[in-house]
Structure formats: C-alpha cells, structure tokens
Design a protein that fits this description.
FAD/NAD(P)-binding domain, 5-stranded parallel beta sheet, 27 strands, about 30% strand, EC 1.6.5.-, flavoprotein, NADH-Q_oxidoreductase, oxidoreductase
Amino acid sequence: MGHRILMLGAGYAGLTAARRLGTLLRGTDAEIVLVNDRTDFVERLRLHQVAAGQDLPRYELAELLRGTGVRRHCARVESVDVDRRTVTADGEPLAYDTLVYGLGSSGAPMPDAEHVWSAASPVSAMRLRGRLTRAAAGERVLVVGGGLTGLEVAAEIAEARPELSVALATSGGLGDRLVPGARAHLRKGFARLGIEVFEGVRVERFTEAGAILADGSVVAADIAIGATGFAPNPIAAASGLEVDGRGQVVVDAAMRSVSHPEVFAIGDAALAPGPGDRPLRMSCSSGMPTGWLAAGHLAAAIAGRRPPTLRVRYFHQTISLGRRDAVVQFVTADDRPRRAYLTGPVAVRYKEALCRVAVWSFAHDLPAGRRGTAAAQRVPGV
C-alpha cells in the first residue's frame, strides 16, 4: 500500500498544494485524497461581489485538478485525531500517513451575532445578498471594520446599490496603512460613492437599531455587516496539534507542525514564520505560497526530491472600490508600504489579473510567483 496523503480544504492554499503534489508525486505509489465540503472552488477574494448581487463563474474542482491523480472526496470535516491519524468527515473515519491541514478561517465572531451580517463565506455572502435585495431605498447599511475586506464590502455595495445609505466604522483611520497619495485616492473614492465614515470608533455590541459604540453612542443601521478580521477553524485546536492563542497550527519553515511532524498546516490555518520574523497574516495570497512550500517539502520526504529553497514575501495590497476603481499599494517584503502605488482603471486591471491568474494557476501548476500580496521567492536554503 502506498503512502496516503489526506488533504483538508480546497481553498487557495489547499488547491495550490494539491496541484503541486500531483505533479511532484506523479509516477509514485502515493495516494492523494482532497477532502472538501464543496465540489467547486470559492473565489474568496470576490465574495464582496457576490454579496452585492453579482454572479461569478463557477470553477469545478474536477476540472481544476484534471490529470493530477488527486482524488476528491466531498464531505465536511468534523474532527481530526492526530494520535490515531484519522479524520472524521460526515461521520466517516479517514486514515492518513501524512495530513495536509488547510481548513482555513471564517469571519471573526461578533457580539450579538444575530444582528450582524457577513460576507466572509459563500453561505453568509448569499444570505447578505438576499437581505440587500430586499432592502428598500434609503435603508442604512453599516460595515464595521476598516481592513481590506471591510473597505471592499462597503465600496461594492455603495456602487451596486446607490439608493442605499452606506457607512463604514473603523477603530483606526480610513486607509491608514496606505501612503498619503493612495490614502487620498481611497478617501476620494469613498466620497464619490457617498460612503459615510466613522473613524477612531470601537463597536461594543449590536442591536436591531444598529451598533453601540464604546462611548455609548449609537450608529444607526438597518443592516450591520461585520468585517473585523478572520478566525481559524476550531478543529485544529481540538485535534491535539500545538496551536497558538488564536487556534492556528504552529509550524516550521517547511510548514510542518512542530508537535506532529506527520502534519503540515497551510494558509490561514498555520502560524507560519514570515519576513522580518513576523508571522504571515491571514490572506489567500500568502496562503498560496505556503501550499507550494508544504507540497515541495512533503514530496521531498516521500520521493527523495530536492526540497524547495523558497521563502515567502509580500509585494502589494489591493483594494477594490467597486468595479471601476481600485487602489494597489506596493509593499516591502515584510509588508510595510512603499512609496509606489496604483489607482483608477490601471489598478482595476492589475487586481483583476491577479484574481484570474490565481484560478488559472490551479490548472497549470505555476510556481508560486507574484500572484498576490505575498509570494515565494527563491533563496539559498531554508
């Protein structure tokens, strides 16, 4: 019986790892099984478009992985037992010799969640889409969170539904991680879209009337949307793997669990070392290179191949301001803003190209190059 590799999750990191493993282990007796609860790939980068009412292309995993030898198993993962080396999915135990854990993350929990909508998953984005479809002219939409996701959700809804009143609340400043020119363009874009901005405020809780701030004041909202970050899937923390306080699996430079070497963790599921001795931030773009790294090191261990000599670095952050405007902020290897940036139609084309190349690469096993805000770069030794 060959070496059995069980892969969990078919997001950006999981698909990158699956495609790469299929290439590197072709001709060996290794068995690669990809477990995912959907038969299609979700473009998480575009869920704000889904929420705003846009229909996106459907990419079937069968087509993306055609010819790789990777076997797909459609089921929802319920638990992982690292001592017995089994995964339970839809009640069925699945054994493994090596596990590649890439279940990723979901929207960070919000207080009074029954009053808060989200666009962090396909299901929640479709629910929000339904609510927005029913919204009457003049209803007030409040997006809470000034990160990339919050900015894109607010802008997309404001452009698609100009008859609604859209606002954004952030604990920092609007676009405060951008250089002055890029930040000024972001502010002009929000003003053009009619988005009201509340800066330096902290939301304590939600009610049917809207958001209650730390000072007790109320920001009225008919539809409150949480976009305050992401939280890792809790399955890893319950598995026995060593995790950090957030529940991310602690890994080494090869994406291998420091407590269970037969487990690799990738993408948002992993607490991975990044440039400047800082952990990689949760993002699909940094997730793709971690999938590439894990696949390369795993194939080296199984088939005696040379391990990859790669490191992960950042190149840019991209922000859509609807379908006709965007900001691209170029950054240093350790994710600090550089002076260079793009705005307007050229930034729209730039961001759109990144999204399309990411999906295209799943069917072509491209190296982990400049696909997103992070990429793998060849260096001497790991």
